[in-house]
# Entry
Amino acid sequence: MANQSAGDAREMVRIENVSKEFVLNHNRALKELVFAALQGKKLRDKFTALHDISLTVHAGETVGLIGFNGSGKSTLLKNISGVLFPDRGRVLTRGKVAGLIEVGAGFHPDLSGRENVYLNGAILGMTKEEIDAKFADIVAFSEIEEFIDTDVKYYSSGMFLRLAFAVAVHTDPDIFLVDEILSVGDEPFQRKCLARIRELQEDGKTMVIVSHELDMLEKLCSRIVFLRGGRIEYDGEPSEAIRRLRES
# Structure
């Protein structure tokens, strides 16, 4: 995307006619597999997770993605983050993208928390000098100081969450992606995460959030996209999107 002047409605995420399919390999009887092989056939079924999705997110927007299980929310978020690539269409992003797509994603189980802060920070685009400067703040935010030199394979999912979230929000991202991450961890830490998200909003960061916590999304989001069967059912006012989902 070409740079535009500050203060305008810059496009931070542009999704153009994106489709994504997955191959489903079912367990087949040996006789069926042999017969198909002799005929030169492959027994594979395809599932289309996204059907020709087009969507634009502007600077400073917080956009929620909602829908029932299998609607394509997480697949769309992973295409924005670059974890997945579309089969058709394209995704364009502007600036640094930090994603909390899966708890502990990008963490190496045989490395300590300290080593994983540096590894994950590097994956998210931080230099060693930037991580050095923010390391103490990252660890303090995570509240797992006494375990920072323990291998993360011994961490609970809540500890993974704390450290992963702490690293991601200290990368100073332009675009912040969150997938159901706030449903993990205890309530005080959830409140802390939400407070940090509001700080990022006040700083003008762009966010895309997937969650089943509809009341939370209604308070956080400037806009909500309701997905159904890999297609956009509604894109607009948060309260209206939630009403449509609940009445489906």
In short: The radius of gyration is 20 Å.
